[in-house]
Specification:
Radius of gyration: 34 Å
Number of strands: 0
Helix content: over 70%
Distance between the termini: 35 Å
């Protein structure tokens, strides 16, 4: 019996030593510092990954989409311009016309920009080269049509122009179809980046959850210190809590703004740009078909101003999603400051504990 009581006394003393106030204070302070560093690293990771997605959309996917659609619209209008020149008879005097040449220049510019930002890798570059070769072949056929009209052989000129138009509009492998597929792929890439975890609600919830755990622990430490020591408040710990609360709100606001602006870009602005450009492509196709059947000229002309406006609107929306202010600098600076205050608060109370 005495040995049992002695064993219990030893165990009780060990437990007391294990949960003594200094040991608890060091453990609680260390956990608070660790949670602060975890919040900093997690928020920094979420922010950097989200901004990488924004840059991917802004610098690659969105420009590639707009360039492909613009080239598609310009080629569709080039075909309309060639038919309009043939049906009006001006092809015998001025060839396919200035609008045709301007459209081919715009298409070439769009293909050049597409080659710079395309997401398709080596296969994508090969596909763009094939489209360029098809455009050159199309232009050559139109020039042969022009030569036939000038030589007084309109039937041959019409045949060449028909062949050129068929090449352009081939639904399987024509340049218009290929550019349409590239544009759809790049539009989907922008949408996928906008729907990623790093630019969505998940990023806000994750960082907010970590901040809530950290602040809850700091509140527990503050209350426990008030019970164990004579002082009600630990001012360094209170300052760290206020600092981290402000940092958490700043981070959540910045990430929420990224989500909002990216959603606006990948949703409304992107789809609005696509509707504008598809409307121009459809109008040009309709006008070209009417002229090919010797029907009336609809009077449609490619509006590059609208196409450029679509590009500018999309760039502006994505630029807003890329704005995070001074948060990349504020996160490490304020997190380390809060960690130092937490350590200072722990040391302050530890000095009051009798040795």
């Amino acid at each position: 019996m005495p040995s049992t009581l002695a064993s219990r006394a030893v165990a009780g003393n060990a437990t007391s030593r294990r949960w003594s106030t200094p040991r608890w204070l060091w453990s609680a302070t260390g956990l608070a510092v660790a949670l602060t560093l975890v919040f900093w690293l997690a928020a920094t990771s979420v922010l950097s990954r989200g901004q990488a997605d924004v840059r991917g959309a802004k610098d690659r996917a969105a420009p590639a989409f707009v360039s492909a659609r613009t080239a598609q619209a310009a080629l569709a209008d080039a075909d309309r311009a060639a038919w309009q020149s043939a049906r009006s008879g001006t092809i015998r005097l001025t060839g396919p016309g200035r609008q045709f040449r301007d459209d081919l220049t715009a298409a070439g510019d769009g293909l050049a920009r597409l080659a710079q930002s395309d997401l398709g890798g080596a296969a994508g570059r090969d596909r763009i080269r094939e489209v360029n070769a098809q455009v050159v072949a199309y232009q050559g056929l139109v020039e042969q049509s022009d030569a036939a009209y000038r030589e007084g052989v309109p039937a041959l000129g019409l045949a060449y122009l028909t062949y050129a138009s068929d090449l352009l509009h081939d639904p399987a492998d024509g340049p218009l179809a290929r550019l349409g597929k590239i544009a759809e792929r790049d539009r989907a890439a922008v949408e996928d980046l906008g729907a990623s975890f790093w630019t969505g609600t998940g990023a806000v919830v994750t960082t907010g959850g970590l901040a809530a755990v950290l602040l809850t622990h700091l509140g527990y430490v503050q209350v426990s210190m008030a019970r164990r020591f004579r002082r009600v408040l630990n001012l360094p710990l209170l300052a760290a809590s206020a600092l981290l609360l402000g940092l958490a709100l700043w981070t959540a606001t910045a990430l929420g703004d990224v989500e909002h602006h990216f959603d606006a870009a990948a949703g409304g602005t992107l789809h609005g740009s696509d509707r504008t450009l598809l409307g121009q492509i459809g109008a040009a196709d309709s006008a070209a078909r009417s002229l090919a059947r010797n029907g009336p000229d609809s009077g449609y002309r490619l509006n590059l101003t609208a196409a450029n406006g679509s590009r500018a609107s999309l760039d502006s929306a994505l630029a807003k999603a890329a704005e995070t202010g001074a948060l990349p600098v504020g996160l490490p600076l304020l997190s380390l400051t809060a960690a130092a205050l937490i350590v200072g608060g722990g040391l302050l109370r530890l000095r009051e504990f009798p040795a």
